[in-house]
Design a protein that fits this description.
Length: about 170
């Protein structure tokens, strides 16, 4: 094989890899406030994030854990300390209840969304936080940054070459 063919073959392989990397679709987790993106990050398969708030009547913490899988946001687990005043106690039809002494954990249920709206409280009601384990800072106090606002949390596909990672724009 001539040197020209080897060079062309090597160039073609490098170009193919670059094109593959540029156009491969990836799932992007986005948090927006009225159309303005606050956060936009490529998400690994099973990427977890947690919303936390203080229940208005019981004054106990409630945590909802979600996972990004296959372009959807899956409700993975809801954790509550007590089971009164509107907090769940019924085992999900496609899930289970785990009691570990600290939390009542409602795992499963097969609920998923491509987007959902998250109502943020304030210093007095809700004290909502968002926990993104792979971010810095990992815990954001939404109640102080976006009091009494509605945030949209969504997942969408974008080509890897076009993904612009946006850290928190506060």
């Amino acid at each position: 094989m001539g040197i020209k063919i080897k060079v062309m073959l090597c160039f073609s392989m490098i170009l193919s890899v670059l094109l593959f990397l540029i156009f491969t679709p990836v799932w992007v987790l986005t948090v927006s406030d009225g159309g303005r993106e606050i956060l936009s990050r490529p998400s690994l398969l099973g990427y977890p994030f947690i919303t936390r708030y203080i229940h208005s009547v019981e004054k106990t913490p409630v945590e909802d854990e979600y996972r990004v899988v296959g372009g959807r946001i899956w409700g993975w687990e809801e954790r509550v300390v007590s089971q009164n005043a509107g907090l769940p106690i019924v085992v999900p039809r496609n899930g289970r209840l785990i009691v570990d002494g600290e939390w009542f954990r409602f795992r499963g249920g097969r609920n998923s969304w491509d987007r959902f709206y998250y109502r943020v409280g304030d210093e007095r009601l809700g004290r909502n936080t968002l926990i993104l384990p792979l971010e810095i800072p990992a815990i954001l106090e939404l109640f102080s940054l976006f009091p009494s606002r509605r945030l949209e949390i969504s997942v969408r596909a974008e080509p890897l070459g076009g993904v612009h990672s946006r850290r928190w724009e506060l």
